[in-house]
Amino acid sequence: MTDESSNQNPVPIDRSERQGHIGIVLLLTVVIMAAIVLLRYLNGAQAQVFIFWLLAVFAAIGVFCAFAFAVGVLQLSGRAQRNDLTRTMADSASEGLLAVEADGRIVYANEGYAALTGSDPAADLKPVERVFTGPPDVSEAIYRLAQAAREGRRSGEEIRLAPALDGRRDFAWYKVRVRPLPKSGPLSTTLWDIADITHDRERQENIFQELQHAIDYLDHAPAGFLSLTQDGKIVYMNATLAAWLDYDLASVGSGGFEPAHFMSPDVATMLTSFSGKPGDVRTETVDIDLRRRNGTSLPVRLFHHVAFGQDGLPGPSRTLVIDRSAGRAEDEDLRAAEVRFARLFNNTPIAIATVDRNGGLIRANASFSRLFGTLPIGADRVEGYPITKTVIDAQRDGFSDAIAAAAAGRGDMPPLELKAEGEQGRSMRLWVSPIGDAEGVNESVIVYALETTELRQIEEQLAQAQKMNAVGQLAGGVAHDFNNVLQAIIGYCDLLLANHRPTDPSFQDIMQIRQNANRAAGLVRQLLAFSRRQTLRPQVLTLSDTLSELSNLLRRLLGEKVTLELRHGRDLWPVLADVNQFETVIVNLAVNARDAMPDGGKLTIRTANVTVDEARPLKIGGMPKGDYVMIEVADAGSGMAPEVLEKIFEPFFTTKDVGKGTGLGLSTVFGIVKQSGGFIEVQSAPGEGSVFQVYLPRYVAAPKAQPEPGSVPVKPPVADHTGQGTILLVEDDEPVRAVNARALTARGYTVLEAASGIEALAIIEARNAPVDLVVSDVVMPEMDGPTLLGELRKRYPDLKVVFVSGYAEDAFRRNLPEGEEFNFLPKPFSLKKFVETVKDVIAR
């Protein structure tokens, strides 16, 4: 057959069957010859037995092969005739099919392949790599397909060849695919599929061109066109509207363009809040102002068309936009008045609605829709939809009475304070006014509304802050006075213990008194922490290290049922805080979380850096801009109801059983955090656990500067408490002054007692010489401690002073000159601590 005839009448080529192997024939020959040679060495009887068994073996092999051939296990060599339907389909397929083994041998090609590629099946059957050659993009596509064939995976490419393979066309498009076939021999086989898709590509291009023409017509229409989804996404905007708004059409279709770029949020909410029944189609006419890119207004009229599906959900809108700028209407005066009213009505921040005599909504602006949510307003609205349904049930009767009074002509009604229906619980102030008969027949009442939600929240926060401040001042005052009482009790206990041996029967009673006084002192410290008047010793802390050291104690406190998980933030910033007070905060929060999980659970403590940009959206009252370090304590407990959440930081408020809590834990946490310059936020709901988030300001060290300590550090106490010198003891509380004077006198000091600052100055003037040390209370009548120190410094600049007080050191440091050195001892203290401090200061 010649090349010409083979191309005109291509036939499928199948080389999948292989010839028998000559090695098997040689093996059989060697076996037979070996049997003949063996017969020469056997005697007659043995030869007969051998021949018998040899014939039996050949007979068995013959019978087996006959049965195997009969059932189809064995076939005779050579090309067998086939009637396989699958192969017939492949042979006659219009696509070109080519099967190639891993070594490059072509085992099958159908008629379509020969026709597409112009190959001669008998002489030169070309593989795909030789057929598709040309520009680099063609070679790269074939290379990717060949690589996929070698890796045994499916792949496909669309290739444009110029000229076409048949040579009769200037170009053609081909779709070339490759996929592996199930392995049936020693080598894997790959199937190539080639189809001419020129016609399909031309049809697609024609459709695309028609679509481009339609879009071009729509883009250059004399009116704007806009399509919005229910969630406020822009589906389409034509070039005319984009040009009106002074935006590039390419930027509009980039995906980042939103309605907020050219309309107010209230208008966008109104356009996406229409509702309807399944299958309904609504068209609303709305006059609004759009916003150009330069900020100027563009008055337009919208014909907003929305269709609802069978599920009741609205589809994308079809909105026609008509420019209502000056000079575009025939009746300019009427048009201008209409536009001005529509712009005023829809763009005002005041919510406005009109209702009929029965309170049914008739018309509402965008602000009203934003405030009250989705409403059935407009031409297709539900007739008689009552406006009273927009507020909560408990206030509907009063609202209805006000509308009825306005419909009757009363116009002097005071505003109403109501709450909108819904989960958000927005507060609002409403004014109800009548409409005269000349202004409309159906519209009888106008309702004006202003949202006061934020104002209400601010008022509640201010009231809560004032209450907490008043409680804090009361707690601080009570704590200060009670500290003096405890100081006297602890001091006299120390004096009694010094005169009683442990074997004395009274010794244990005195110890019980002292221990209970110390317990009371602990409660006082918690009150001072709440009132932010405790003494802090701030230092630079890395909270991840502090929490890791505290974790062992926390696990013992939490018990076996509660699992503790620490999640440390990366590269945590340092903070300036009192390490002991910070540990008190974490322990209190952890213990509360444990009590909220009686059946066990998981407590998570997480730290993270919060940048100034991340802190801005938190909306924590009074929180200044800056970087913070956040400590989050989250539990999986029972959670708290809103009414409980409002009171958790108040002192002596607790939800625990009697005897299981003082109610000072969270108030102490609140005071410590606030006194450290931080903020605390709580999120909780019944059944969802609680999350406490503490924000401490980031500490940035000044160049070559160290944080100033709260007071001059006290040297380690010495064993010998006796001393010499004259001490001026200034204390307005007589029991405290008496016990302190006895303790100093017993150690060898000369003590001068004064009940006030004025009396102390008189003693110094009468003495006409300095004393070795002044020990003074801070809060005293007539003259306080800082004022006394200022007067003494005028006479004796180097005079040593020790201040004692139940208040925090920072509470009076600000009243002293900058750089003033003094020592501080917080009340209540033991007499041992007192005499150690006195001796150490005199020694220095």
Please describe what this structure looks like.
This protein has 844 residues and is α+β, with helices and mostly antiparallel strands. It is 40% helix and 20% strand. It has a six-stranded antiparallel sheet, sandwiched between helices. A hairpin with a 7-residue loop joins β14 (416-419) and β15 (427-434). α18 (579-595) packs antiparallel against α21. The longest helix has 46 residues, at 453-498.
Helix content: 40-55%
Query: How far do the termini sit from each other?
Result: 122 Å
Tally of separate helices: 26
Structural class, from helix and strand content? alpha+beta
Strand order of the largest sheet: 1-3-2-6-5-4
Mean pLDDT: 76
The gross shape turns out to be: flat
Spans of at least 5 consecutive residues with low confidence = 1-8, 77-83, 377-383, 658-663, 705-718
Q: Major sheet: size, sense and barrel closure?
A: 6 strands, antiparallel
Q: How many E-type strands?
A: 28
Radius of gyration: 48 Å
* Strand percent estimate: 15-25%
